[in-house]
Predict the 3D structure of the following.
Amino acid sequence: MRLGLALGGGGVRGLAHVAVLEALDTAGVRPVAIAGTSMGAIVGALYANGRSGRDIRRLIRARAMPLDASWRRLVRRRAALAVWLRAIRPDVRRGGLLRADRVLGLLAEEIRAETFEELAIPLRVVAADFWAAEAVVFESGPLLPALQASMAVPGVLSPVEHAGRVLVDGGVVNLVPYDLLFDRCDRILAVHVGGGRRPPHGRRSPAMLEAVLGAFDISHGAILAEKMRVRSPDLLVTFGLRDIPMFDFTRIPEVLRRAAVTADVVRTALETWMRDALPPS
């Protein structure tokens, strides 16, 4: 079975991909190719570079700052806190509230490969050309600029200038890029970390940033639904995490906990596919 894995974007919600990677590891299934957008591209790069799902979970948990953490606990983890504070320094002059390179550095420093060619599993990364209004797919050459561009959410993370283009978040054009895998895989597992929407308790009108990011969620979902009507993957796993703001990194433990439940769907599908792939006795 030649399995392709597509990991969608979604900010902190994209860390839910870890549960899917752990399911693959448990089943002993190794994708022959990965496609990722935004946080899905970063997690996909870590996995393609040889990290196990469990290793990536440990890495994420080491960076997480719990919402209910006591001051004493925060002091003990001051190194991790300092990294996050450096990442969220405003960068308004370059068109974003956050610096894409600093945010990326939280996880990308663990990616040992410098180029796509060094990865153990072929990876395709999606970004969008802001001025040409078209998708840009990276699969060779330097890895870091591709990952930076893929997660540069307009108005929140700074655009990335690379090879004469101004690049922004790939979710603008292809949130869950499973269509990039049809040419090399016979089974495709796609993971969407959005899904589900409800107003916070006691409040119906969103705050400004929440409204902007929520609008992205709506447009991303509409594009994905249209693409699904044309051709769908063998399995689309949807994590209902839209109630978690894209950049609320205090809720990483919640993301990981809720993802573990949905990952059971992946385990069941893998068992079926592996059974079907066996030669008749």
